[in-house]
Amino acid sequence: MNITDREFSATRRLVLKGAGVAALIGLGVLPLDVPQALAAANDKYPEEAFKQKNEADAIKALYGGRTAEPSDQVKMDAPEIAENGAVVPVSAITTLTGVTSISFLVSENPVALVASYRIPDGTLPSVSNRIKMAKTSNLTVIVEAGGKLYSATKEVKVTVGGCGG
Amino acid sequence: MASTIRVRATSNGETTEVQVLIQHPMDTGYVKDAKGEIIPPHYIQQLTFEHGGKAVFIADWGSGVSKDPYVKFAFKNGKKGDDLKIAWIDNKGATDATTAKIQ
Questions:
Q1: What is the total count of domains within chain B?
Q2: Residue A35 reports pLDDT greater than 70
Q3: pLDDT tens digits, residue range A65-112?
Q4: How far is A70 from chain B (nearest CA, A)?
Q5: Which of A16, A69, A101, A155 has its CA 20 to 30 A from that of A144?
Q6: Residue of B nearest to A50 (CA)
Q7: Domain region containing B52
Q8: CA nearest B43: which of B58, B22, B63?
C-alpha cells in the first residue's frame, strides 16, 4: 500500500514538473502566437517585474532606478474596508499631464505588482479595475508622467483574503 | 466558441469610454483545490486595445487581477461606428480577440 502511494506521488510530481516545463515552453514561443493587435503594439510584457515578491523590487524591475514621489495630483478610489479580498474595485485618475503609464501595487500580496497600464497619447490618464488583496495592506498607485514617477498610497483593510489559503 | 471578451465602447463625440469584462480564471498558483493540490498559475498577461491601427491602451497583468477581469478606460478621437480591436494572451499562450463597434 505504502509503495503504491509513493509511486503515485512520484508520478504526480513528474506530471507536475512536466506541466511546469510545458508552461515555460509556452512562454518561449509566445511571440509566434501573438495576435496582430499585440504585435502591432510592439510592447513587451514586463515579465521580471511580475516575478518580484516585494514592492520595491517590482518598482525597480518596472521603472529601472527611478523612485516615485508622493503627489496629491494622483487620486485613488479604493474602499476603506474590502469585505472580499478576491475582488477589490480600485480606480486611479490624475491631473498630471504627459502620462505614459499607471500601475497598481499591493505591498502584502505574494507578488506585489498587480497591473500596469500603458497610456498612449490621446488616452485619458484614468483607469478602473478589480484586484485581489491577500490581506490588509497598502495599495500604491504609480503614475509615470514626463518620465517621472508620482505615487499615492492608501491602506485597505481586508476581512477575507483573496489569494488562497 | 463564444468570445471570452465582452466589451462596451461608447462615444460622446469627444471621448470613447471602454468597459471590458473577460471570462478567465486568473489563477494565482497559490490556491489549492478540494483535493489539496495546487492549482497552477493561469492568468492573462497582456490585454491590448487598438483603434485606427494604433494601440490606445495596453494592460499588463499579473495574477493579482481578479477572476473574470474588468477594466475601464477612455480615449479621444473614437467615433460612433469605428472598430475597436481587443486581444489578450495568457501565461499559457492562449489568446482570444474580438472587434467591437464604438456606439
A1: 1
A2: no
A3: 899 999 999 999 999 999 999 999 999 999 999 999 999 999 999 999
A4: 23
A5: A155
A6: B62
A7: 5-101
A8: B63
Q: Is A11 exposed, middle or buried (0-12, 13-18, 19+ CB in 10 A)?
A: exposed
ipTM: 0.95
Radius of gyration of chain B (CA): 15
pLDDT at A41 over 80: no
Any idea what the CATH number is for the domain that residue A58 is in? 2.60.40.2470
Q: Is residue A126 part of a domain?
A: yes
Q: Hunting for cell 514586463 — which residue is that?
A: A46
Residue B90, CB-side half-sphere exposure with 13 Å CA sphere:
23
Q: Check pLDDT > 80 for residue A27.
A: no
Count of alpha carbons within 13 angstroms of residue B86, beta-carbon side: 21
Do A67 and A125 sit in the same domain of this protein? yes
Residues of A in contact with B50 (CB under 8 A): 37, 40-41
